[in-house]
Amino acid sequence: MDDKKFRLYIDESGTHNYSSNDDIKHRYLGLTGVIISEKQNVEVLQPGLLAMKRMIASDLDELPILHQEDIVRKSGDFVKLNDPAIKKQFNDKLFELLDNMDFTICAVVLDKKSHLQTYQKSAYHPYHYCMNVLLERYVFCLQEKGGRGDVLAEARGKAEDQPLKEEYQHFYENGTYFCSKGYVQQFLTSKEIKIKPKNKMLAGLEFADLLSLATKLDTLHSHDKIPDLVENFCKEIVAKIQKNYRCPVGKRINGFGRKLIC
Question: What is the CATH number of domain 5-261?
Fold first, then answer.
């Protein structure tokens, strides 16, 4: 397995439509990018998530998909998490994975209400805006790691997926103000983004889903947009992942590994 071949897995928290609603879910769109090498994916991530699934599966031939909302609601196979002993074992398995796996997080959060008020009709598509900012950080991170890689995002529906493919291709072919196209193409291995549904049992997407809400809330808290997080499972994840944010030597996490756009 190659430890210099990477993939960026993207998951979202919140809605991609503009809203004047102040509720965190509606006001802020967060994109979580988890950067994992091929080697770590095969040797650490996939076995780790498989162990978590087997722990709560009702049928070992039909393993559940790890989805944060289902886990919180304890729906389907996750009803077993109502048992405190099983819940602790399940959580400990995730914490063990967070401790032992080598991966990097880049989180981008957009304050849609503020952005719309500022730019009105010229406001950029929220998801596409966040993705471009995330892709810039991914390319910079690949240079820092001396690697190359591609991108895989969660499918969101036919109407959303085709424009996303076009947006990614535009990034690859043109670059941005901060990344020339030559720089982008030096590190990205594909001119096309891969888009897959979570029901394909892709470990990277499932892992990004487990972290998406935590990174969004952490980004908002680190920028003083929300008060301290309450003592719960999400806060425990936030504490565990601080070491995994992209943070070049001599720099800080905010702006590099956590980015808030207003």
Answer: 3.30.420.10
